[in-house]
Automatic annotation (TrEMBL):
<feature type="transmembrane region" description="Helical">
    <location>
        <begin position="95"/>
        <end position="116"/>
    </location>
</feature>
<feature type="transmembrane region" description="Helical">
    <location>
        <begin position="262"/>
        <end position="280"/>
    </location>
</feature>
<feature type="transmembrane region" description="Helical">
    <location>
        <begin position="199"/>
        <end position="217"/>
    </location>
</feature>
<keyword id="KW-0472">Membrane</keyword>
<dbReference type="Pfam" id="PF01384">
    <property type="entry name" value="PHO4"/>
</dbReference>
<keyword id="KW-0592">Phosphate transport</keyword>
<keyword id="KW-0812">Transmembrane</keyword>
<feature type="transmembrane region" description="Helical">
    <location>
        <begin position="237"/>
        <end position="256"/>
    </location>
</feature>
<keyword id="KW-0813">Transport</keyword>
<feature type="transmembrane region" description="Helical">
    <location>
        <begin position="62"/>
        <end position="83"/>
    </location>
</feature>
<comment type="similarity">
    <text>Belongs to the inorganic phosphate transporter (PiT) (TC 2.A.20) family.</text>
</comment>
<feature type="transmembrane region" description="Helical">
    <location>
        <begin position="470"/>
        <end position="499"/>
    </location>
</feature>
<feature type="transmembrane region" description="Helical">
    <location>
        <begin position="169"/>
        <end position="187"/>
    </location>
</feature>
<feature type="transmembrane region" description="Helical">
    <location>
        <begin position="34"/>
        <end position="56"/>
    </location>
</feature>
<feature type="transmembrane region" description="Helical">
    <location>
        <begin position="136"/>
        <end position="157"/>
    </location>
</feature>
<feature type="transmembrane region" description="Helical">
    <location>
        <begin position="301"/>
        <end position="320"/>
    </location>
</feature>
<protein>
    <recommendedName>
        <fullName>Phosphate transporter</fullName>
    </recommendedName>
</protein>
Length: 500
């Protein structure tokens, strides 16, 4: 029997999308189990005590304390539900142990929230509904209503097993409560348009960045005659670029107010940091490559360090962007209470940021081990190199959005990155000259036919899978934002009638 020719197409996009779906399903499963509810309740009580100690002498202290409890609850949900997107690839590939992954994620989620979360918090607390659009007392009730509506919808959706975005939930709730409080003119519609645009652009940008990284890896490492030598040359470059770019980002954006460095100096520090890490990683990667066979399987070992770096970056980026979903309304309530007292509303109290940061970390630590264990086996099958591209592109995209003050969904950015990697691989498999030459050089036969062309039913199934994931993202915008907006308006009406 004649050997069948090697096929150029690889139906991995749909498999990778299925794995990402399993992450969301597992997150909801773990949330249903209410793991360690006692610890969670203790944290909520501590958040209320801390808030009360700062505002006990102020009118409206009870509202602030209630808002602190709701913000802490939302922060724990954020930490619990998104942890797998950040560290499961590194754990599944055995680049990190479970304990190390939890510690690293908790630390960098907290650092991201504390260091770089202010821009997005300002957008949620002051941008969508400007404080000048209504009296301070009305704004307090509107923001408390937004917190109640968003937290309630997240809780209901989790019970129903419906994957939603906490970013969409809080943005919709703030908008709805503001409209109910002061009419449609109270909303900064230009900013809302920018936020909605970022929800479309960020998955597309994530996909393009992921595809570019994968193109670089395939061209410089995967389809080279000596993969190990190529990896020794280029993996340290990737590590250095990641580190240097991240250092420059910190100095240019979140830490700019703490340093006197200009743009040029910050870039030089980033280059120097990247160069130092590059030099240190060269001997490490060389040691890791000793005894490895010249095959793709060996590259999994050499990409452990980049996977760890991408997990760190994504944890930092997630903490920086998503902390606003929990504490943005709380920050607005605190500032509005300060204004009632003719006090300075400048700056965000550190205890507010701390509640959000610790809430994300505690949610991660409470729910993380079981969640990672559930999805680890599935997400590991997402090739470490592809997982690295997805995680790094998601981190870069979310960090850019954070620097611009735009709240985006990290899960949807990750979905966009998976799409970008999958579609690029399909194109590259059919058209890349380097891959074709690589296969021919090793005596392989290049099939001219596409398996999908011979199996219309499979083609239809795969397109349905992709369409379902795309529609999940669209449904999150179409359903979550209007629903939480209506909920926010209704809750504000009730609170205003009872206490306003």
């Amino acid at each position: 029997m004649q050997n069948s020719p090697k096929r150029l197409t690889k139906p991995t996009l749909d498999k990778d999308l299925d794995k990402l779906t399993r992450v969301e399903e597992a997150a909801h499963f773990v949330s249903r189990g209410l793991v360690a509810p006692g610890i969670g309740m203790i944290f909520l009580a501590l958040a209320m005590i801390v808030a009360g100690s700062y505002v006990i002498d102020l009118p409206g202290a009870a509202i602030i304390v209630a808002g602190a409890a709701l913000a802490a609850y939302m922060a724990m949900n954020i930490g619990a539900n998104d942890v797998a997107n950040n560290v499961s690839p590194a754990v599944g590939s055995r680049a990190l142990t479970m304990g190390a992954a939890l510690v690293i994620a908790a630390i960098f989620e907290t650092l991201g929230a504390m260091i770089a979360g202010q821009n997005v918090v300002a957008t949620i607390s002051e941008g969508i509904i400007p404080p000048s659009s209504m009296p301070a007392s009305t704004l307090i009730w509107a923001m408390l209503a937004a917190l109640l509506a968003a937290a309630g919808w997240i809780n209901v959706a989790t019970r129903l097993g419906a994957p939603i975005s906490t970013t969409h939930a809080i943005v919709g709730a703030v908008m709805g409560a503001g409209i109910a409080a002061a009419g449609p003119t109270s909303v900064d519609w230009a900013l809302m348009s920018g936020i909605a645009t970022s929800w479309v652009v960020s998955p597309l940008l994530g996909g393009m960045i992921a595809a570019l990284f994968l193109f670089f890896i395939k061209e410089t490492i995967v389809y080279r005659d000596d993969k190990i030598v190529a990896a020794r040359r280029w993996v340290p470059v990737l590590i250095g670029l990641m580190t240097g770019s991240f250092a420059a980002y910190l100095l240019i954006s979140p830490l700019a107010h703490m340093t006197d460095l200009g743009l040029g100096q910050s870039l030089l520090v980033g280059v120097a940091t990247g160069g130092l890490v590059y030099a240190v990683s060269i001997p490490y990667i060389a040691r890791q490559s000793i005894g490895l066979e010249n095959r793709n399987q060996s590259l999994r070992t050499l990409f452990r360090v980049p996977l760890i770096f991408s997990a760190v970056l994504l944890s930092f980026a997630h903490g920086a962007n998503d902390v606003s979903n929990a504490i943005g309304p709380l920050a607005a309530i605190v500032h509005a209470t300060d204004n009632l007292q003719a006090a300075s509303g400048d700056g965000l109290p550190r205890w507010v940021m701390l509640i959000g940061a610790l809430g994300i970390a505690i949610g991660l630590l409470l729910f993380g081990p079981k969640l990672i264990d559930i999805v680890g086996k599935d997400i590991t099958k997402l090739n470490p190199m592809r997982a690295y591209c997805v995680a790094l592109s998601a981190a870069v995209t979310v960090l850019v959005a954070t620097a611009l003050g735009m709240p985006v969904s990290s899960t949807h950015v990750a979905v966009g990155s998976v799409f970008g990697v999958g579609f690029f691989r399909e194109w590259y498999t059919r058209h890349a000259r380097r891959r074709l030459d690589y296969i021919r050089k090793r005596g392989g036969m290049v099939a001219s036919e596409d398996p999908e062309d011979n199996n219309p039913e499979e083609t239809r199934r795969r397109r349905l899978v992709r369409r379902s994931h795309f529609m999940t993202i669209i449904a999150a915008w179409i359903i979550t934002v209007p629903l939480t907006a209506m909920s926010g308006a209704i809750v504000f009406g009730i609170l205003n009638a009872l206490f306003g």
